[in-house]
Design a protein that fits this description.
The complex is a heterodimer of chains A (243) and B (259).
Chain A lengths: L3 E11 L6 E9 L3 E5 L6 H8 L7 E6 L2 E2 L15 E4 L11 H12 L5 H14 L15 H13 L5 E5 L7 H17 L3 E6 L11 E6 L2 E6 L1 H7 L2 H4 L4
Helix pairs in contact in A: 2-3, 2-4
Chain B lengths: L1 H30 L6 H17 L2 H22 L9 H39 L2 H7 L4 H38 L5 H11 L2 H28 L6 H29 L1
Helix pairs in contact in B: 1-6, 1-8, 2-6, 3-4, 3-6, 4-6, 4-7, 4-8, 4-9, 6-7, 6-8, 8-9
Classes of the chains: A alpha/beta (243), B mainly alpha (259).
């Protein structure tokens, strides 16, 4: 297997609102597109939060791009953050900024030397790919759920991350947009080594782009492998997550 | 009972330590700026000064004028009965420039901007904007807290001095209209009573009140966890604690100097 982008080594963690606890051991290679699927409260979002260094595991280690997360409230300046793009279930677009300014913020903050013109063209290119150009001057409160999510994905991709963590990326997106998003992620993966970990709570065509599926239930990995292989292996109750 | 007092005392110290940590981190971010995000933090700072300082000028003007008018009306009608009519000028220095100016300005700033900061940060916490900033590698202390604290401190100092000037002017309006004291006589009375330490002290109070209010409001805003109903609760706490802290600071600064 190629070099690991994300390792969750014997991670154990209580899950909020569930009697079960997360108990996983995962290794995701650089450039892989992994879809973590399963019912609600199975631990998908928690895996992403652990991978993003937002929470510490009760036991085990989380290593992202060779950096072991030690959660510290002042860890924003960790350089590994700039190699990671994350969109959580609540996308967190800044409500006092327009969509354009939200997407431009990572560049404005971390690439201060970039000219305003280059910055604008980079942001516009991103908005265009995600079909958000007409919304550029709208505030998050004026956007629908799918537009907010796409805006957050655009923002997460602005610094060309090595790892992209997406929690329910298709929520609020129409079928056409799901396919467009899948095509865009695949295109980004073709042009550079981009590891994608997406958590999905139901079947979506977005899953078809994944190299590997991790099927999660009650905090444990029920199955892990390519979609076709899993369809045969898993219990019938879980097959509908695979399509 | 003793246990309760002990618990409350420890909680009080922990609260003050949290405020001091927040303020000292903001100070460090101010004196040790990084190249990263300097312009963005500067823009937040300018917006904060506009909101806390410039936008507060009309309400500060009205309140300062009214306070000046009230104080000189009372002083002008009562002092002559005691044979101290010549103290009208010094009464405005003692009451407004030394005490009411900084305190009332702090109350205006708490009511307008402190609550706005607590609400804004509270909402940002609930909608996970604070988490999103962390995920983007943007330090909260540098991008959110420091500009708000610095903006509030600078605005508070300027507004306090402005309040004092306008209140003196309001006092003069009454002194002139009601007590027929000419402008130069009134000004001479004020200048005679006013020392440079009074001006320095009023500015110092502005600095301390501004730091305290900003730290309290940022702390309570960021203390909101997961529900919008926590936002007004934390905002109310921020407001009350800001008032109490300003009065405490006022006592600590004033008593040793004037007693």
């Amino acid at each position: 297997m190629n070099e690991a982008a994300l390792i969750l080594e014997q991670v154990r963690m209580p899950m909020l609102g569930s009697p079960h606890r997360l108990d996983v051991d995962l290794r995701i290679g650089a450039g892989e597109f992994v879809a973590v699927v399963g019912p609600s409260r199975s631990g998908k979002s928690l895996i992403l939060e652990l991978a993003a260094g937002l929470v510490s595991p009760q036991a085990g280690r989380v290593i992202l791009l060779g950096h072991e997360w030690v959660v510290d409230l002042n860890d924003e300046s960790s350089p590994v953050r700039l190699r990671l793009g994350t969109v959580l279930q609540q996308p967190g677009l800044l409500s006092n900024m327009t969509l354009f300014n939200n997407v431009a913020l990572p560049l404005r903050y971390h690439r201060a030397s970039m000219s305003e013109r280059d910055r604008e063209s980079a942001v516009m290119a991103q908005l265009e790919r995600l079909r958000l150009v007409p919304m550029r001057d709208r505030f998050p409160a004026e956007l629908n759920q799918g537009e907010v999510r796409r805006g957050a994905i655009a923002r997460a991709l602005m610094l060309d991350p090595d790892v992209l963590l997406l929690d329910d990326p298709v929520a609020g997106l129409d079928a056409e947009m799901v396919l467009a998003l899948k095509a865009y992620v695949e295109e980004r993966q073709r042009t550079r080594t981009l590891t994608v970990v997406a958590a999905l709570r139901s079947f979506s065509p977005f899953i078809e782009g994944a190299d590997r599926l991790v099927l999660l239930r009650n905090g444990r990995v029920e199955a892990d492998g390519p979609r076709a292989a899993l369809a045969e292996a898993v219990a019938s109750t879980l097959r509908h997550y695979l399509g | 009972m003793i246990e309760w007092v002990g618990r409350k005392t420890i909680a009080g110290y922990a609260y003050l330590a949290a405020l001091a940590t927040l303020a000292s981190q903001a100070l460090l971010d101010l004196i040790l700026p990084t190249r990263q995000g300097r312009r963005e933090s500067w823009l937040v700072l300018v917006r904060q000064i506009l909101f806390t300082g410039v936008d507060a000028l009309p309400v500060t003007t009205v309140i300062a004028l009214l306070v000046g008018i009230i104080i000189i009306t009372q002083a002008g009608t009562q002092l002559p009965k005691l044979g101290a009519g010549g103290l009208v000028g010094s009464i405005i220095v003692v009451t407004v420039i030394r005490e009411l100016g900084p305190l009332l300005t702090a109350f205006i700033v708490v009511g307008r901007s402190g609550t706005a900061i607590a609400t804004e940060l509270g909402n940002m916490s609930v909608t996970r904007e604070v988490v999103a900033l962390r995920l983007m590698g943007i330090p909260i202390s540098r991008f959110v807290i420091m500009p708000r604290m610095v903006g509030m401190v600078l605005s508070m100092i300027c507004l306090t001095l402005y309040f004092d000037v306008v209140a003196v002017l309001g006092g003069y309006l009454v002194a002139n209209a009601q007590l027929t004291i000419p402008f130069y006589a009134f000004l001479e009375g004020v200048m005679k009573a006013l020392s440079s330490s009074d001006v320095a002290l009023t500015a110092l109070k502005g600095l301390l009140f501004g730091s305290a209010v900003a730290a309290v409001c940022c702390h309570h805003g960021l203390a909101v966890r997961s529900s919008f109903t926590e936002v007004p609760q934390q905002t109310t706490r921020a407001m009350i604690n800001s008032f109490v802290l300003c009065l405490l600071i006022d006592v600590v600064v004033t008593v040793p100097l004037y007693l």
